[in-house]
Amino acid sequence: MNTHTQVSFLDGTYTLIHIPLEIYPTLLQPILRILLPQTQSLNFSRDSTEYELEGLTTDFQHAFLNISVTPIECSVVCHSSWAKNVFEPALNALPKHVGKSVSISEDTFMILAVTTAGLDPGGRVMELSSPLAFAGIPIFFITTYYSDFILVPTQEKLEVVLALDARGFELSGDHHSTFVNSSYAPRTSDGHLPQQPPGTPPPSNYDELQARTFDLLLKNNVKPIVEVGLELVQCSGRETSPLMNAYTTRPSMSRKNSTDYRRSWITHVDPKLYTCIVSALVSQPRFLSLTLAQDDPPSLLLDKALLPIFDDSLMGDIRGCLIPIFLDLRKLPAKSTGIVCGVAGRIAKGADASESSELSYLSTARAGTVILSQVQSIRAMCILTPLLSK
């Protein structure tokens, strides 16, 4: 099957924040300040650096934001300026023994936005993660209702470009940050692959990659976990006029080009949806992952028990049933590679084509979540449990 995959680098650098669940209530206020960006400027003059935080479009919305609450952690991916100007002051105000349990990534990340035609969700996870896994580049992977997003270390941009080039992705026209692969035909020569440090050559095939992945997980006592009674749905904020134009033709990144400061952030969003999101976050949900991206309506992966909060503000298969399998990665080295590709690939290898087609993946700061149908999750646990048992 021919596929058409486009990979684009989003503007800006992003930070990954890990918040332990026990102090999530303490840091809910800065989380909401980021979710509702209009509130950030209220206490500052327009001439101050805090007023012009980066990462917002001209309609005052985030170019990218992910807030995830899972049974393992709360994780936030936000533009680095928000981490510095909102989270760091909030942490500095806490007692040291409390604040030190929160982790703000020292390295920044770039975000690759991916659109693919002709591949099922499981195929997308494999196609998109494998070039970077074989190049030894650590990634975080986020599947949403509309798109896929990959976080890669900013300092490894050249290696990412070379890895994509080696796998048949080519620059698209005049867009120096967009790559297109129309047929996914990996190049036979590996002369352009990033050079690995001595003693750590990249895996030569999928079997070796999966073996390394599960050896690392086993050494760190990572077990697959299914939470009893937790069922998820993947859905989207409903597109309603007059919001449709805001969702389908979002402006470019620069707020500084806009002189109409009288228009509010709330002009461009669905107030009902955001009220529901705030209500869900305040409830400290068992599971809620919200992704905002400048070219998509809001995307949510959430505990089915939260659906009554949202009433009719969501669209999608809300009657569906997805089961998350959690991998607690808090003991792993921060720059571990191949986890997404190795785990997803092993599950897909042990299932037939129709079963692997619905596999999706969510990376948070210190955990990985494989998302499958109920039947698929049972079979996946039968595959993962023996591999991760000593």
TrEMBL record:
Biased composition range(s): Pro residues: 195-204
Coiled coil: none
Matching Pfam families: ACT_7
Region (Disordered), start-end ranges: 183-206
BP-aspect Gene Ontology terms: amino acid metabolic process; carboxylic acid biosynthetic process
Gene3D superfamilies assigned: VC0802-like
Name of the protein in question: CASTOR ACT domain-containing protein
Natural source organism: Hypocrea atroviridis (strain ATCC 20476 / IMI 206040)
